[in-house]
Write a structure and sequence with these properties.
single chain, alpha+beta, YxiG-like domain-containing protein, four-stranded antiparallel sheet, YxiG-like
Length: about 170
């Protein structure tokens, strides 16, 4: 995707819900899974999307939850919605984050420029803001896919980790 297409893809999911994010199981690309909905009156069905940030050389995730709220959110019951919904604190158990203020590309990123020169490949820096985490990614390309029901970004196998090569 070119820069204009990446920006348009970011706009398409403004204020939607991030349900999971992390490196893909092959560890090269960074995935952000989004639950996208429209006003029910439109008749557009909700869908799960995977935003795959390809050739991701840097991923930094920090908490967007302020320290005072964190302090009130340490109760283990808050990781389960049913147990935590009536407690004070951040209810981690909702299992999603509001994609607001959203995703944007930085126009002048020293990290992206340095990596672009080192790899001889155009790289960009995306900043993702939510109510739970702020994520910064340096990557080369973006692919957007619809994710089918039952998809799992990681599955534990008999070998223990899904390793394809020799075990440790």
């Amino acid at each position: 995707m070119d820069v204009a297409e990446i920006r348009a893809a970011f706009e398409d999911v403004f204020d939607q819900a991030i349900v999971f994010h992390g490196f893909a199981d092959h560890m090269r690309d960074y995935d952000v899974f989004i639950y996208a909905t429209a006003d029910p009156h439109t008749g557009i069905a909700p869908k799960h999307l995977r935003y795959r940030f390809k050739y991701c050389v840097r991923a930094v995730a920090t908490s967007a939850v302020p320290p005072a709220v964190w302090k009130e959110s340490l109760d283990e019951r808050l990781v389960d919605y049913e147990q935590g919904v009536d407690l004070d604190g951040y209810v981690w158990g909702v299992k999603w984050q509001e994609l607001y203020p959203g995703m944007r590309l930085l126009t002048d990123s020293p990290d992206a420029e340095r990596w672009s020169q080192d790899l001889d490949l155009p790289l960009h820096e995306a900043v993702i803001g939510t109510n739970g985490h702020n994520v910064s990614l340096v990557f080369s390309d973006l692919a957007v896919d619809t994710v089918d029901v039952g998809f799992a970004p990681f599955v534990v196998t008999e070998r223990g980790t899904g390793l394809q090569g020799p075990p440790f």
